[in-house]
Design the sequence.
């Protein structure tokens, strides 16, 4: 097979998105907030529409700020409903994201004639357009695909956030009370993480769509978690899985001539279910081994 | 207005059909949703509604058109598959349930999208309505669909009513249901099937992403009005039907507007109103009763201050002294003084506030409760006299007359409290 620069670009962009999502996903999963990530990725929709109205463009800082704010607002809302209103947490999540998503869709429908933003692109995204969606400077110079830059920046920010606050994230994830007693600002860490999740959702929704952001956020960490308990190994394995998933996903989509993002999620699913089946078969075997070992001693 | 009358007079058979359809599916979703909400499985519905997509695509692939029988069957198969996958993975791995739900949801949806892009390439013209499955539009439902969806919704409602007692036991006390010999596993299977069916019937009208709201929100709102299951079901159904009709009306009046989002907006509005204004657990209700309690405490404290001034031989306290007793609360103090004055407990003469006869009686009651409780603490709980004040400070506001009598009797009608202060007696009574 010849080297295909488009394929390379798409796979690289896909990998970077998968890495950003997966890194955040590890912490979401460990904090039992997997569904909060799902909720945020739906709830940012009104923020995206408002930002779009304000700036008139689908890219840029306004979009990030708009979605980031709404994402954090959604988190505050969920916390408020479950802590102050005393609603059970799954219902808080469900009510928050469905109402915000409904508001977003209504806004899009009302403004359908004025803005070039349709529902499909928010839900699915199309990473196949990456090579043709170029960043052209004011002077008319072509700098390369825009989304690739976006995901590179996003990945850098996510890695920066996690390295910078690794200790805080780790402690507050595994022992919230302890983190609070030694004076860590767990609330700030939480909102920081949610802000990063919102930002990642926005910067990736054009490429992979809202629901597939969730696939990349939850499935690789979940798969990796079945193989290891060590946090460092978990992170490394998640990153590795993200890259493999983008690579295989691209070629699956190429072969089937279908949505790349969907194919990436399907490949992630294959890894996930294979792991579950293998674990199921292995656990009794390991137990058996352990019991025979004890007998021999 | 004309449109309003046209819509609600149901003279248009299409309108009548759409409204009947949405009412039936609102009822079935709210009923199923109430049980899933109580079972803390609200988000499983979200997973099912996403997992329906590959089934719908599969049905298209096989039948080649939008035949509702095929679509319902396809959607049911993958929807059911997703619930069993969730249970299976959650039972056999160390993954938490929310991670499993999110994973299954996004994987199924991803597979669905792959299939959908495959379908779109075939260029089949009858596929044009496929996006209604994602965003939902009740107005797009036509005759044949309605019969299928309406029949299914009706079936769900009937089955739930028939198995009401069994489901109730299953949700509230699973182990008890097992011990009295109910086939819990089979009931659960039945209930899961109903849940999948409810999602499947609602998808075309409400849409994939928003279907979760139709299951969760009515039940969550109803929970704020009652604790009884039967009443909760009824309230959830009413909320859901009202939002369904309003949503259908809005999408009828505003062309191109999908029904689902409006149904969800109305539902959420009802839910938030319930959270704030419900007479039982609403935020506002709780806030008001908390504020009233704080006002009562403040009132009690002012009366006590005046009472102790009386005990020390003063006629009353100057108003500046009263205010100085509660630094930083002058606004509240002023309110309380005004109110006490109106109620005839105190009177003000030449800037000196004194207790009226009625006020002395009331203040004496509070002080008596305080001192009785202090005495009780030292006598019966062996707590040192210098440690009992704080507890008495809290209890003096809430001890009922019955408790007071009991305390008095148990302490043998004492004269003095542990600090040798005289316990004020109400001369009218004794």
Sequence:
């Amino acid at each position: 097979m010849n080297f295909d620069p488009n394929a390379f670009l798409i796979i690289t962009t896909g990998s970077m998105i998968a890495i950003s999502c997966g890194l955040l996903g590890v912490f979401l999963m460990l904090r039992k907030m997997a569904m909060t990530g799902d909720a945020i990725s739906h709830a940012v929709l009104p923020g995206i529409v408002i930002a779009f109205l304000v700036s008139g463009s689908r890219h840029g800082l306004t979009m990030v700020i708009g979605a980031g704010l709404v994402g954090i607002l959604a988190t505050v809302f969920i916390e408020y409903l479950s802590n102050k209103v005393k609603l059970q947490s799954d219902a808080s999540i469900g009510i928050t994201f469905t109402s915000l998503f409904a508001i977003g869709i209504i806004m899009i429908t009302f403004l359908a004639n004025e803005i070039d933003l349709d529902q499909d692109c928010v839900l699915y995204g199309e990473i196949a357009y990456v090579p043709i969606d170029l960043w052209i400077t004011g002077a008319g110079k072509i700098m390369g695909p825009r989304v690739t830059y976006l995901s590179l920046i996003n990945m850098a920010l996510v890695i920066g956030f996690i390295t910078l606050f690794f200790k805080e994230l780790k402690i507050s994830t595994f022992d919230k009370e302890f983190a609070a007693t030694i004076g860590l600002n767990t609330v700030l860490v939480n909102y920081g993480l949610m802000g990063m999740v919102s930002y990642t959702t926005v910067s990736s929704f054009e490429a992979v769509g809202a629901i597939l952001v969730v696939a990349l956020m939850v499935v690789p960490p979940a798969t990796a978690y079945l193989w290891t308990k060590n946090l460092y190994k978990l992170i490394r394995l998640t990153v590795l899985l993200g890259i493999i998933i983008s690579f295989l996903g691209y070629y699956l989509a190429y072969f089937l001539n279908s949505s790349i993002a969907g194919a990436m999620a399907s490949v992630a699913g294959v890894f996930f279910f294979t792991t579950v089946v293998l674990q199921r078969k292995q656990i009794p075997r390991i137990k058996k081994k352990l019991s025979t070992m004890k007998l021999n001693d | 207005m004309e449109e309003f009358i046209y819509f609600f007079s149901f003279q248009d058979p299409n309108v009548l059909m759409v409204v009947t359809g949405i009412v039936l599916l609102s009822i079935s979703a709210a009923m199923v949703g109430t049980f899933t909400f109580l079972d803390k499985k609200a988000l499983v519905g979200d997973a099912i509604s996403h997992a329906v997509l590959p089934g719908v695509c599969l049905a298209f692939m096989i039948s080649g058109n939008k035949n509702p029988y095929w679509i319902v069957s396809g959607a049911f198969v993958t929807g059911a598959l997703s619930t069993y996958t969730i249970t299976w993975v959650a039972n056999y791995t160390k993954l938490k349930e929310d991670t499993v739900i999110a994973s299954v949801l996004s994987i199924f949806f991803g597979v669905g999208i792959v299939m959908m892009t495959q379908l779109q390439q075939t260029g089949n013209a009858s596929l044009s309505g496929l996006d209604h499955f994602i965003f939902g539009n009740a107005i797009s439902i036509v005759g044949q669909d309605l019969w299928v969806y309406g029949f299914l919704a009706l079936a769900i409602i009937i089955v739930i009513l028939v198995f009401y007692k069994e489901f109730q036991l299953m949700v509230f006390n699973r182990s008890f249901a097992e011990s009295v010999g109910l086939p819990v596993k089979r009931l659960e299977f039945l209930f899961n099937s109903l849940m999948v069916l409810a999602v499947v019937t609602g998808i075309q009208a409400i849409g994939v992403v928003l279907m979760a709201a139709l299951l969760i929100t009515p039940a969550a709102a109803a929970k704020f009005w009652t604790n009884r299951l039967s009443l909760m079901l009824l309230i959830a159904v009413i909320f859901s039907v009202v939002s369904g009709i309003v949503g259908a009306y809005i999408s009828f009046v505003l062309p191109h507007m999908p029904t689902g989002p409006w149904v969800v907006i109305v539902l959420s509005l009802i839910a938030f109103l319930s959270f704030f204004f419900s007479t039982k657990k609403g935020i506002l209700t709780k806030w008001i009763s908390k504020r009233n309690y704080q006002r009562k405490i403040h009132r009690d404290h002012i009366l006590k201050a005046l009472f102790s001034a009386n005990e020390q031989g003063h006629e009353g306290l100057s108003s500046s002294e009263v205010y100085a007793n509660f630094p930083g609360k002058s606004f509240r103090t002023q309110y309380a003084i005004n109110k006490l004055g109106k109620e005839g407990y105190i009177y003000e003469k030449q800037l000196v506030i004194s207790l009226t006869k009625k006020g002395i009686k009331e203040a004496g009651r509070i002080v008596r409760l305080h001192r009785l409780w202090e005495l009780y603490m030292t006598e019966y709980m062996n707590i040192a006299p210098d440690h009992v004040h704080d507890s008495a400070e809290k209890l003096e506001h809430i001890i009922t007359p019955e408790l007071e009598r009991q305390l008095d009797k148990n302490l043998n009608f004492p004269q003095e409290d542990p600090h040798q202060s005289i316990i004020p007696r109400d001369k009218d009574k004794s």
About this structure: The CA atoms of residues 50 and 109 of chain B lie 6 Å apart. The first strand of chain B starts at residue 317 and ends at 318.
